[in-house]
Fold this protein.
Amino acid sequence: MQLDAAAPRGQLRRRLGAAACALLAAGLPSAARAEATGDWQLDGSLLLYGERDRASVFEPVARISRLFDNGHRLSGEFAYDAISGASPTGALPSGQVQTTTTPSGNTVTIAAGAVPTVLFRDDRYAADLEWQAPLARTARATITGHFSSEKDYLSRGGSASIALDMFQRLLTVTAGAGVNADEVMPVGGTRVGLGDGTQMLATGTNPKDVTSGMLGVTRVITRRWLVGLTGSFESERGYLTEPYKVVSLVDPVTQEVSGQLTEKRPDTRERKSLQVSSVYHLSEDILYLSYRAYRDDWRVESSTGDVRYRFELADGRYLLPHVRYYAQHAASFYVAGLVAGEPLPAYASADYRLGPLRTATLGLTYGFHAGSLPGTVSLRGEYMRQWLANPSGGDGEGGDDARAGGVQLAGTATAAALTSVSGTPPLHIATLLAGYSVNF
């Protein structure tokens, strides 16, 4: 189950692009870090994620680290995800009752005017292992391994990086690379792309290989100010189609949904991103700023702005407000639907996560020491509103969003269908996270 609009299945815990955030963490002023008081560190968290009338996630995570006398550090992280709810199929709402068959063979009836969804339930188990070792006084290496499993997806991978401090530790350069060998095993078999759902491919297991790399630089500007710049690249090969998504066929005369086809995506994808970050330590408080630009050869382009401000309170307590905005241009093959009887394109997907997507997030974290309990407790709540940009112009502007918004549909059906396609706009998402960290 994919919960991040910018990341495909199996990537939430292994993309080297996420290492951009870690670059700054390595060089934060001392007041911005938890002070280590022992050779062991235990971090635990419990995440509750909910989309209104859609998916929900229950995720406990535990991470334990051991710091050795020679500077080596070994960490292991274990996570379990219980994911359930309703997921949009990508089909358009219809003025008539729709009856479809799910990949598992069940028959689903969708009421007239309702967004077609399918109920699902999955359990995911993940384990990560990380080894950090000093290579010299100013250099260190990190090696990681990853494994995760769910009923229709298996992910195995690893990465390695080297960080080098220069100019009396005022400049740090980090370079890394990673590989992943994933397998996609759709429930009910692998259906032929842009088919009626009854045509099946011979294979039940589909490979998906990913290679990635990153290069980052952090620079201490003043004793209070740290900036970072990170670039990442990722190449995917193999089965990249979402096996349960469909595209509606619309009758050119009645403007009603007349059928549906399975979606089809290219079997390669090249991703590039660039992130700039800043941490400024005021007399007591800390300001975090970041901006990320992303593009790929599916013509998906996105921009992400993120602001956090840590208010230091008495007795080791703090408040951390968070504001984030994400804007995305649609993939070249994103459509709301296809006109029945017209020639089929090479690729097509109605998955709103490939559309002209926008998200706005507001959050707040409260950290404190719980009485005589050692360590730090944190409580974080976030609300995210997710919607599709105006198909007639994308937030009032022309260009790719207008193109991708549904020119495959004719007449008055376009605007009406896009108003409710795939459950957005808008989608309301809430997350609650409780965390605990202790050194011993």
Remarks:
- Helices lie at 19-25, 400-404, 413-420.
- Residues 1-36, 392-424 have pLDDT under 50 and may be disordered.
- Residues 373 and 438 are 9 Å apart (CA to CA).
